[in-house]
Amino acid sequence: MKPLVCATKPRKAQYRAALPHAGYHAITQLQQKTPVKVITTNIDLLHESAGTQDVLHLHGQIDQMSCTQCLHYWHIAERDFTDEPCPACGNQLSKPGIVFFGEPAPEYETLYQIANSLTEDDIFVVVGTSLNVVDPIFIIRSMQRLPRIVMIDPNIPASARQFGAQCIALSAQEGICNWIASLDLI
Ligand SMILES: [Zn+2]
């Protein structure tokens, strides 16, 4: 486990220096007007930095450690990843609280629960379809019962339109700002 910890240390410093762009702030503003649930594969805390509440991190987050034994997660805030023992079970083998390739990602279960609870009053917005891990078409296919799906990405797969998605071929920042402005809520 140690090499993983070392490999992620420089990246953590890099994440700390990043600042949320206007798209993140637009989401926060939208959330102040209407309920918004954010589901992200990002491990950074840019949504939180922008003031957004209620963020689900599918792949964990940079300010957590996790236990390889009991799967307990705990916050380490700004501290670097350490090899501190698990506070729940005392296991010495802890790791950064982020999901590495090949590891289980338990929060996907939460994603599917949320997906199942959506109603026709909800709008499902997919931003950044360059994701290799979450297949946006799979998500759209499973969301077909919903009347309003929005996809924002400069390279939207052609197949997205056949699923009835509103396609906005812009960068995440520009697309999310434009789309939220078009809602006329802010
Ligand atoms: Zn533990």
Quick recap of the structure?
With 186 residues, the chain is α/β, with parallel strands linked by helices. Helices cover 34% and strands 18% of the residues. Residues 67, 69-70, 72, 86, 88-89, 91 line the site of zinc ion.
Name the features:
single chain, alpha/beta, Rossmann fold, three-stranded antiparallel beta sheet, three-stranded parallel beta sheet, 7 helices, 8 strands, binds zinc ion, Ssirtuin_cat_dom, protein acetyllysine N-acetyltransferase
Topology, pairings included?
Layout: H1 2-17, H2 22-31, E1 38-40, H3 46-49, E2 55-57, E3 60-67, E4 73-75, E5 94-98, H4 107-117, E6 124-127, H5 136-142, E7 149-152, H6 159-162, E8 166-168, H7 172-182
Parallel strand pairs: 1-2, 6-7, 7-8
Antiparallel strand pairs: 3-4, 3-5
Helix pairs in contact: 2-7
Residues 67, 69-70, 72, 86, 88-89, 91 line the site of zinc ion.
Enzyme class: transferase
Binding site for Zn(2+): 67, 70, 86, 89
Domain Deacetylase sirtuin-type: 1-186
Describe this structure in words.
- GO terms for molecular function: histone deacetylase activity, NAD-dependent; metal ion binding; NAD+ binding.
- Keywords: Metal-binding, NAD, Transferase, Zinc.
- This is protein acetyllysine N-acetyltransferase.
- It is a single chain.
- The chain is built from 7 helices and 8 strands, in the order H-H-E-H-E-E-E-E-H-E-H-E-H-E-H.
- The strands form 3 sheets. Strands 4-3-5 form a 3-stranded antiparallel β-sheet, covered by helices on one side. Strands 6-7-8 form a 3-stranded parallel β-sheet, covered by helices on one side.
- Helix 2 runs parallel beside helix 7.
- The structure holds zinc ion.
- The site of zinc ion has 8 residues, from loops.
- The site of zinc ion (ZN) has 8 residues, from loops.
